[in-house]
Design brief:
Shape: rod-shaped
CATH architecture of the largest domain: 2-Layer Sandwich
Radius of gyration: 50 Å
Structural class: alpha+beta
Helix content: 55-70%
Oligomer: single chain
Largest sheet: 5 strands, antiparallel
CATH superfamily of the largest domain: Histidine kinase-like ATPase, C-terminal domain
Number of strands: 12
């Protein structure tokens, strides 16, 4: 079972992982105390007193009961001394009992003189006493050993309880963290196909925890458009044993969609087996927030396009009026040639052709304006960045002329094909051109010139578009804030143009930057990745 894959439906009991622990010196009661002078004295004192008590009892039996002394009394004293004090006190009691037995029991009585006939009796007593002492000491040692084992076992049980409490709390924390972060864990043994899920993984897939998870069930939950990709990824993982990470969509029983991100790490499971341990995260909320952000950015970009078109109204009107005026002139000429009859038919035909051409010019201008003004979804297609520059230049020709600005273009001779949204790319170019126009408005002591250059990067995998003006430029203080939303140095304006430009460029996998010129003005540059086939051909 992997971390977090433990049931916690009933909740975890309140546990104290900091419960008091038995001291490492808990053996003091058995060992260190036994080695203190008082304990040693007590054990030997008990040995002496037990023999004395046996002797007194034996003398009393002889004097008052008129019976032979009980040898068993001395054996009891030895047994008690050995049991209470151990081997040392037992031997002392054996020696004292032997002397008492020799002096008071063995003939001659009240004398240490040894009668030859009493030697077997005395020897048997001593052997019996030693045997009893050995048995009692062994029993005491075994008792102490059992007591130590018991206390060791209790300490081990306490340690195990604390460990289990910590594990239970860790699992509880992990399960709660998985629930809060919407991240489940899983294990997959490739050889057997066995799969284990945490509770959060079951919740993500919205299935009963009693269900046995399988690869077939996972693939069944996958969105039809993602199923083949996930199947291929799992096949490669089972064969190669490499880590994998992917995002996919799940289709819930009620038809709802979920976005998940899966990350798995391969581990060895035996000599030839592979086991994956991984995490699956429900990123549906993040995807929805990302979509909402994209919609908001699209709305904002559309609003700025409309504002830009409003600023270019006079230029656009001029671009439309030119072909309309030409249409009127050619129409009047056509009528005059038609009045001449057959002799004027050829000239009338040529006038009509010019009218058609001028109508096409006007339609192109109106079409470009409508495309910029229309709010549409992002549609990326292969396009030449040079064409985008020319289209933007056509719309802004009148604005440049009215502001007395010379536009110089140095476009790459070869097409720079990128995959991008044409309208959004036009918006970036037009915003940067307008930015250059406004920067050169205060300039009166030098020509106002705006340069647009397109080129390939040195490694031929990036398209570069450069716009350099000779305007007032920007200060070092403002350099870091140029692309911040709502930052502007102008008296009018929202300060959103450059921020939106950077967002559009970065959304296309590129980068937008600004730098101060060695002379007057500033240079804005953005890069976009060239289409793979184009970059490879170079």
């Amino acid at each position: 079972m992997y971390p977090g894959q433990r049931s916690s439906e009933t909740g975890a009991p309140a546990l104290s992982v900091d419960a008091p622990r038995p001291s490492s010196d808990w053996r003091l009661g058995l060992t260190d105390f036994d080695q203190t002078p008082w304990a040693t004295f007590s054990r030997y004192a008990v040995a002496i007193l037990s023999v004395a008590a046996a002797l007194i009892a034996s003398k009393a039996a002889v004097e008052y009961l008129n019976i032979e002394p009980y040898v068993s009394l001395f054996l009891c004293a030895i047994m008690f001394a050995a049991w209470f004090g151990g081997l040392g006190p037992g031997l002392v009691s054996t020696a004292l009992a032997g002397l008492a037995f020799e002096y008071f029991v063995a003939s001659p009585i009240n004398s240490f003189e040894i009668d030859v006939h009493q030697i077997p009796r005395v020897s048997l007593f001593l052997i019996t006493a030693l045997f009893v002492n050995w048995i009692a000491a062994a029993q005491r040692k075994a008792t102490r050993s059992l007591e130590l084992s018991r206390r060791d076992l209790l300490a081990a049980l306490e340690a195990q309880k604390r460990t289990e409490a910590r594990l239970l709390r860790s699992e509880m924390y992990l399960a709660e963290a998985q629930r809060l972060s919407r991240t489940g864990s899983f294990g997959w043994k490739v050889a057997t196909g066995e799969i284990s899920w945490s509770e959060e993984t079951f919740r993500i897939f919205e299935c009963d925890p009693a269900t046995t998870p399988t690869l077939e069930f996972v693939l069944q939950r996958m969105h039809p458009e993602d199923r083949d990709f996930v199947q291929q990824l799992l096949d490669e993982a089972s064969q190669n044993g490499v880590d994998f990470c992917h995002e996919a969509r799940l289709v819930m029983p009620n038809g709802a969609l979920k976005h998940i991100r899966t990350l798995a790490h391969a581990m060895k499971d035996g000599p030839d087996g592979i086991e994956y341990i991984g995490a699956v995260t429900d990123v549906t909320a993040a995807k929805q927030a990302e979509a909402a952000l994209n919609d908001a950015q699209a709305d904002l970009a559309h609003a700025t396009r409309v504002i830009t078109l409003g600023e270019l109204t006079s230029s656009i009107a001029h671009e439309v009026n030119q072909p309309l005026a030409a249409i009127m002139s050619n129409g009047e000429a056509c009528l005059r040639w038609l009045d001449r009859g057959a002799s004027g038919m050829e000239h009338a035909r040529r006038s009509v052709e010019w009218i058609v051409k001028d109508v096409s010019r006007a339609a192109d201008v109106i079409g470009r304006v409508r495309a910029l003004a229309r709010k549409t979804d992002t549609e990326r297609a292969l396009l030449d960045i040079n064409e985008v520059v020319n289209e933007a230049r056509a719309l802004m020709r009148r604005e440049l002329t009215s502001k007395q600005i010379t536009l110089r273009t140095e476009l790459a001779t070869d097409p720079l094909i990128v995959r991008a949204d044409r309208v959004q790319l036009q918006q970036v170019v037009m915003n940067l051109v307008m930015n250059g126009i406004e920067a050169m408005q205060p300039v009166t002591d030098r020509p106002r010139e705006l340069l647009i250059r397109s080129q390939r990067s040195f490694d031929a995998d990036q398209a570069i578009l450069i716009m350099a003006d000779c305007g007032v430029g920007f200060s070092d203080e403002n350099a870091e804030r140029l692309f911040n939303a709502f930052f502007t140095t102008k008296s009018a304006g929202l300060g959103l143009g450059l921020s939106i430009c950077r967002s559009i460029v970065e959304a296309h996998g590129g980068k937008l930057s600004a730098s101060r010129n060695a002379g007057p003005g500033a240079t804005f540059q953005f890069t976009l990745p060239l289409h793979e086939d184009v970059g490879r051909a170079q």
